[in-house]
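Translate structure to sequence.
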């Protein structure tokens, strides 16, 4: 059996393919991507969904929240990803205030992302309050992924990154929001930082795939921020992140070795230099 990155003729992942994966009980693997090099590696590794997330603000731009990220920045990073990806479904976050002002502005911004970046879907945060705009986008042929639980664009309203849905009333609201999102036409729902039991209830109640990030093992798929799972982003380490590597430590070691070699005059050596 070949590995995920060895078959150049692998079938393109679509929103319909994700629905079939849920029906067959095949788990969906999703990660974030913000540039062509990383996107190529992820795509060849067999990742099903690449999210060009507004998390670019924290892990690439060095911001404290995702709130300042702009439409221009999202389009730019999405372009970098889509120019190299062959198999994965590319989904792009609609940034803060790009879809909350009006349905028409949301349609223009979502359409711009698909037209200018050649991505295949957008993601937006929120429950029942966003159903009207979701219907407007899907009626126009724009696939929409929902996002419930901890919604980072609302961090100033929440005031904390704590787990959402631990209280019965909030859990009920998140559950009802999931049902509403499905009825509004989303093709999948990200569930972030909620109790595993709630993630399981929602996954069993909706026909569209659920993608968990800190939502337990019973979701139809999982997503992490790539920089987190690689150990590249080290400012904090959420409980739900499994570190599959410690790349920051390895990079630091390599950089220190390079600096030492340059200062000691051992780089470049004769074999790394050109002769007359």
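Result:
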């Amino acid at each position: 059996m070949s590995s995920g990155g060895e078959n150049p003729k692998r079938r393109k992942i679509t929103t319909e393919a994700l629905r079939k994966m849920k029906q067959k009980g095949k788990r969906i693997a999703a990660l974030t991507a913000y540039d062509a090099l990383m996107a190529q590696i992820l795509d060849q590794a067999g990742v099903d969904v690449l999210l060009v997330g507004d998390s670019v603000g924290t892990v690439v731009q060095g911001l404290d929240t995702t709130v300042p990220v702009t439409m221009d920045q999202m389009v730019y990073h999405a372009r970098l990803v889509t120019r190299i990806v062959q198999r994965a479904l590319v989904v792009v976050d609609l940034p803060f205030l790009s879809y909350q002002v009006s349905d028409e502005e949301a349609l223009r911004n979502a359409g711009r992302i698909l037209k200018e970046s050649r991505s295949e879907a957008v993601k937006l945060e929120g429950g029942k309050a966003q159903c009207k705009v979701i219907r407007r986008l899907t009626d126009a042929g724009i696939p929409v992924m929902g996002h419930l639980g901890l919604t980072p664009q609302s961090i100033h309203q929440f005031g904390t990154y704590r787990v959402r849905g631990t209280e019965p009333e909030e859990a009920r609201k998140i559950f009802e929001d999931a049902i509403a999102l499905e009825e509004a036409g989303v093709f999948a729902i990200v569930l972030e930082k909620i109790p595993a039991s709630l993630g399981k209830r929602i996954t069993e109640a909706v026909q569209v795939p659920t993608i968990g990030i800190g939502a337990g093992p019973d979701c139809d798929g999982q997503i992490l921020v790539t920089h987190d799972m690689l150990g590249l982003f080290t400012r904090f380490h959420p409980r739900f992140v499994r570190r599959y590597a410690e790349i920051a430590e390895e990079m630091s070691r390599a950089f220190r070795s390079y600096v030492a070699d340059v200062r000691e005059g051992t780089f470049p050596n004769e074999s790394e230099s050109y002769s007359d």
